[in-house]
Amino acid sequence: MKNLIIIFLVFAFVAESYAQKAEDYFNLGVANAESGDHDKAVADYDKAIELDSNYEEAYYNRAFSKYLLKDYKGAIADYNSLIALNPLSSNAFNNRGNIKSEIEDLEGAIVDFNRAIELDTANYAAFTNRGQLKDVIKDYKGAIADQSKAIELEPMRVEAYINRGKVKEELDDFKGAITDYDKAIGLDPKNTLAYCNRGNAKYHLNDYPRAIADYDKAIGLDPKYAVAYCNRGNVKFDLKIYKWAIADYDKAIELDANYTLAYINRGNAKFDLKKYRWAIADYDKAIGLDASDTLTYYNRGNAKFKLNDRKGACQDWKKAVELGDAKAKDEIRKYCK
Question: Structural domain of residue 22, as residue ranges?
Answer without folding.
Answer: 1-84
